Amino acid sequence: xxxxxxxxxxxxxxxxxxxxxxxxxxxxxxxxxxxxxxxxxxxxxxxxxxxxxxxxxxxxxxxxxxxxxxxxxxxxxxxxxxxxxxxxxxxxxxxxxx
Length: 98
Known about the structure:
With 98 residues, the protein is mainly beta. 13% of the residues lie in helices and 42% in strands. It is built from one helix and six strands, in the order E-E-E-E-H-E-E. The protein has a six-stranded antiparallel sheet, with helices on one face. The radius of gyration is 14 Å and the shape is globular.
């Protein structure tokens, strides 16, 4: 990524995790300093028929309200439908070995 880009009111910054078809970015919401995690699934990398599973993940995340689970805020398909974006709370990870 050549600099911050985003989706809707969110700006994506550094990559904080990635898998086979998605990356997780540290994100901020326009006009605020609040940070989020933005999971961006690149649909060209997703197996055929996998989009319903991504939508189901978003639906299930929306049902969970627990102190040990990051909150889920939104799910969108990008304007060209080439990516799906899940916006979640950002969990800071600490290294217990230090």
